[in-house]
């Protein structure tokens, strides 16, 4: 297993994802002799995990069961330990496409943060590309290096511990794309430009505040970037539910023949696919939005070096 | 790392994309071919050899020349007003007439100069606020500057172009939705991916771009052959197509039931619109359906039975030889086609695909239920549908089937912004909808049981916090 190559069976040393149910999962480092506690009981790595196929159902000691999944950058993003606020897959998706990333691409990123985007970038540029990621916090940089090693991708990434605004990315004129998620991206635009290849490189800056965006756009213009474009993207998730709505009792008309309103015994309504004739309710399937959703993550500004 | 080499120069035969502001158009780069784009006529000949991303001016002769960098005079303090309370829009503030402007254009005056003339001949220009002047200049430049940028095709460029120009061809799949699919599907190099799309080959192209030629793709197709009009725009190297297979949907049931055979069957003569518009058919790079082959062989046989003179006999003999060669060629093609079909079938039969992407005009449920059979456990799948309701049905049927977890029905919301000093705001127009996605992960399917813990089958709505993980359900 690695984050850039699928494996079929769970092996010692793998990072696997334990899936307990709707929106409930966590990563686990597979190791001989280890056990993992879950609310459904204990999982013994040696007997329950190692050698089993990814996607298997594992019964825990209390009798409940879980699924063991192969890690992907997307699952990692949902489960990684946060050291900083992270980017989620919705933003990551549009960033990847708008930066035109693909196998072989050279990408520069700062800050590394918790490595959410980093894992996704590495997956996209593998097997022939490379990620140069810069993080000014020493422990975070070290933790990132450790994780990339554990996840089998260290050959595809270089972590540098420095301040990108002062010292840049450590490379010149080779990057196909640069990504910035730092407090003052306008201070790094110059460095971004020198890291990018001569023509056609793409840049993206992520900022939560519009004021940051304004300064960044100005800086991009000053440095000669073109096609400057700012957007934001949000995911709207729908819960699929069967809904039952009661039919109101509108009483009967003065004449005693038939009742008014939506009468379930009325032959003209019998053809309706959703009417539940017995209980005076109508059932239908609906995609119901969640009560609270993410309303904002940040603005994404893209541009081209020309 | 050497991507930026020869492939970044415009070459004859390339598929290039013309760009002006936010308008795109894909064209073939051919000499002496007149192109019309954004009310301009020009030839691409002079663009050949330049780097992609270059912006050109269209000269009066219809030729392209690289646009010179012009120094913007921003340092002078411009005369401007404070608001528009006294500006009356009577349509008379521009002193240059239509004919005057045309005369300037005919003289070969550059767009920039025309804009300057318009400014000088506008009675209200200096009364406008600075912002209004800015807006005015931008608007006139847009109209009179004859420029075009030639960009290299990519998923970003082509998906934006198709959504703006021909959304009907791609089932109104908006480019950010496509971006979500590629990530949710974990599309990357080295995987074995099944793609089923009726989006003119755009989705296939996007998948191919993200796979970089590594791994393999099996494209499922309806009707006689897959449409790959958009795919050819990407300009992939030939090698990318070595591991691109295709398999007809019409043989899926037989493959699943074990009765698959590569021999041609009676193919209905109605090639119908399920294969796209006729113009797209011409661009199909795919094999002709077997029916056409059989039909072409028959005329040969008819010719043999004709009765004629000596001259015509000679002619007939050489014609016969030609026909025999044609027949032989067609037989070889047919044999090759059958071989490829068997190869694709073999790949599918392994039932170990790493991912499934569906984006078509068909109802998604039957596609998902059948194509998921070919996917390995613990692998992602994504289905796109222009409408939400079919995905509700799909979701329900998948729950009943079991073998899938983490089902998610989603839609992405996208907004573009204008960012200018003191004038930043979302853009005025916005896409109302970009389609819907249903995604999930496969798991090992147990015989005869659904993953009943998460059953959301007919039950009354409850707030999600109260929905219990029913451990005591007999499973």
Automatic annotation (TrEMBL), chain A:
Which stretches make up the tRNA (adenine(58)-N(1))-methyltransferase catalytic subunit TRM61 C-terminal domain? 64-305
Q: What is its EC number?
A: 2.1.1.220
Q: What class of enzyme is it?
A: transferase
Check the record and name the InterPro entries matching this protein. Answer: SAM-dependent_MTases_sf (IPR029063), TRM61_C (IPR049470), tRNA_MeTrfase_Gcd14 (IPR014816)
Q: Name one Pfam family in it.
A: GCD14
Major location, coarse class? nucleus
- Localisation per UniProt entry: Nucleus
- Look up keyword Chaperone and say if it applies: no
Under the heading SUPFAM superfamilies, the entry gives:
S-adenosyl-L-methionine-dependent methyltransferases
Q: A Gene Ontology biological process annotation?
A: tRNA methylation
Keyword terms of this UniProt record: Acetylation, Methyltransferase, Nucleus, S-adenosyl-L-methionine, Transferase, tRNA processing
Any one GO CC term of this protein is: tRNA (m1A) methyltransferase complex
Source organism's superkingdom? Eukaryota
Q: Which Gene3D superfamilies match?
A: 3.10.330.20, Vaccinia Virus protein VP39
Q: Which reaction does it catalyse?
A: an adenosine in mRNA + S-adenosyl-L-methionine = an N(1)-methyladenosine in mRNA + S-adenosyl-L-homocysteine + H(+)
One GO molecular-function entry: tRNA (adenine(58)-N1)-methyltransferase activity
Residues annotated to bind S-adenosyl-L-methionine: 114-117, 135, 163, 181
Q: How does it assemble?
A: Heterotetramer; composed of two copies of TRMT6 and two copies of TRMT61A.
Q: What does this protein do?
A: Catalytic subunit of tRNA (adenine-N(1)-)-methyltransferase, which catalyzes the formation of N(1)-methyladenine at position 58 (m1A58) in initiator methionyl-tRNA. Catalytic subunit of mRNA N(1)-methyltransferase complex, which mediates methylation of adenosine residues at the N(1) position of a small subset of mRNAs: N(1) methylation takes place in tRNA T-loop-like structures of mRNAs and is only present at low stoichiometries.
This chain belongs to which protein, by name?
tRNA (adenine(58)-N(1))-methyltransferase catalytic subunit TRMT61A
Q: Which gene encodes it?
A: Trmt61a
UniProtKB/TrEMBL annotation, chain B:
Q: Where in the cell is it found?
A: Nucleus
Pfam families xref list: Gcd10p
Q: Which UniProt keywords apply?
A: Methyltransferase, Nucleus, Transferase, tRNA processing
Q: Where is this region: Disordered?
A: 265-307
One GO MF term, please?
methyltransferase activity
* GO process terms (BP): tRNA methylation
What InterPro entries does UniProt report for this protein, alphabetically? TRM6 (IPR017423)
Q: Spell out the Acidic residues composition-biased ranges.
A: 265-274
Cellular-component GO terms for this entry = nucleus; tRNA (m1A) methyltransferase complex
Q: Which family does it belong to?
A: Belongs to the TRM6/GCD10 family.
What is the name of the protein in this document? tRNA (adenine(58)-N(1))-methyltransferase non-catalytic subunit TRM6
State the species of origin: Pomatorhinus ruficollis
Name of the gene this protein is made from: Trmt6
């Amino acid at each position: 297993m690695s984050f850039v190559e699928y494996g079929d069976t769970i092996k010692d040393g793998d990072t696997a994802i334990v899936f307990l149910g709707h929106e409930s999962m966590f990563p686990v480092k597979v190791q001989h002799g280890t056990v993992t506690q879950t609310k459904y009981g204990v999982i013994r790595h040696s007997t329950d995990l190692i050698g089993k196929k990814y996607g298997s159902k594992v019964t825990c000691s209390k009798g409940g069961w879980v699924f063991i999944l192969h890690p992907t950058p997307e699952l990692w993003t949902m489960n990684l330990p946060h050291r900083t606020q992270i980017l989620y897959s919705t933003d990551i998706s549009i960033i990847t496409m708008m930066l035109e990333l693909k196998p072989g691409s050279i990408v520069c990123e700062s800050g590394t943060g918790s490595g959410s985007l980093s894992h996704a970038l590495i997956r996209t540029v593998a097997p022939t590309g490379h990620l140069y990621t810069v993080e000014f916090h020493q422990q975070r940089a070290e933790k990132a290096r450790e994780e990339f090693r554990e996840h089998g991708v260290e050959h595809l990434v270089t972590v540098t511990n420095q301040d990108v605004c002062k010292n840049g990315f450590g490379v010149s004129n080779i990057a196909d794309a640069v990504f910035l998620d730092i407090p003052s991206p306008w201070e790094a635009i110059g460095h971004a430009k020198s890291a990018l290849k001569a023509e056609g490189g793409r840049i993206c800056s992520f900022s939560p505040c519009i004021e940051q965006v304004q300064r960044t756009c100005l800086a991009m213009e000053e440095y000669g970037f073109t096609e400057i474009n700012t957007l934001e993207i949000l995911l709207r998730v729908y819960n699929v539910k069967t809904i039952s709505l009661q039919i109101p009792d509108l009483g009967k008309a003065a004449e005693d023949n038939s009742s008014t309103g939506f009468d379930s015994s009325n032959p003209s309504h019998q053809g309706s696919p959703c009417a539940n004739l017995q209980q005076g309710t109508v059932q239908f399937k609906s995609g119901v939005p969640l009560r609270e959703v993410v309303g904002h993550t940040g603005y994404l500004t893209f541009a081209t070096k020309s | 790392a050497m991507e930026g080499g020869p492939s970044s120069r415009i070459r004859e035969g390339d598929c290039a994309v013309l760009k002006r502001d936010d308008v795109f158009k894909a064209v073939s780069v051919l000499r002496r071919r007149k192109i019309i784009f954004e009310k301009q006529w020009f030839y691409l000949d002079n663009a050949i050899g330049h780097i992609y991303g270059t912006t050109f001016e269209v000269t009066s002769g219809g030729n392209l020349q690289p646009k010179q960098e012009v120094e913007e005079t921003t340092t002078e303090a411009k005369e401007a007003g404070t608001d528009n309370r006294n500006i009356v829009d009577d349509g008379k503030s521009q002193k240059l007439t239509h004919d005057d402007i045309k005369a300037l254009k005919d003289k070969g005056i550059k767009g920039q100069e025309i804009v300057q003339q318009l400014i000088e001949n506008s009675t209200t220009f200096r009364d406008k606020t600075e912002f209004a002047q800015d807006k005015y200049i931008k608007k006139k430049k847009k109209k009179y500057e004859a420029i075009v940028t030639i960009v290299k095709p990519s998923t970003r460029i082509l998906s934006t172009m198709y959504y703006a120009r021909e959304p009907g061809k791609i089932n109104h799949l908006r480019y950010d939705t496509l971006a979500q699919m590629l990530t949710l599907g974990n599309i990357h190099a080295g995987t074995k991916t099944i793609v089923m799309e009726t989006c003119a080959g755009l989705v296939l192209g996007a998948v191919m771009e993200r796979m970089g030629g590594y791994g393999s793709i099996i494209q499922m197709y309806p009707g006689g052959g897959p449409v790959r009009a958009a795919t050819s725009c990407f300009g992939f190297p030939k090698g990318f197509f070595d591991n691109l297979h295709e398999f007809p949907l019409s043989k899926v049931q037989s493959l699943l039931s074990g009765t698959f055979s590569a021999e041609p069957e009676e193919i209905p003569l109605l090639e119908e619109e399920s294969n796209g518009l006729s113009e797209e058919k011409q661009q199909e790079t795919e094999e002709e359906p077997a029916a056409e082959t059989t039909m072409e062989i028959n005329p040969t046989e008819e010719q043999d039975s004709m009765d004629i003179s000596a001259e015509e006999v000679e002619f007939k003999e050489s014609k016969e030889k030609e026909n025999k060669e044609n027949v032989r060629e067609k037989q070889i093609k047919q044999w090759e086609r059958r071989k490829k079909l068997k190869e694709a079938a073999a790949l599918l039969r392994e039932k170990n695909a790493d991912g499934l992407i569906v984006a078509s005009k068909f109802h998604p449920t039957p596609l998902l239920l059948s194509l998921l059979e070919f996917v390995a456990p613990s692998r992602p799948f994504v289905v796109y549908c222009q409408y939400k309701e079919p995905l509700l049905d799909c979701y329900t049927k998948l729950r009943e089937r079991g073998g899938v977890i983490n089902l998610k029905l989603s839609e992405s919301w996208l907004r573009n912004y204008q960012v200018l000093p003191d004038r930043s705001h979302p853009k005025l127009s916005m896409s109302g909808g970009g389609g819907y996605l249903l995604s999930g992960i496969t798991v090992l399917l147990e015989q005869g049981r659904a993953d009943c813990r998460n059953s959301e089958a007919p039950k009354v709505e409850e707030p999600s916090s109260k929905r219990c993980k029913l451990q005591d359900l007999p499973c």
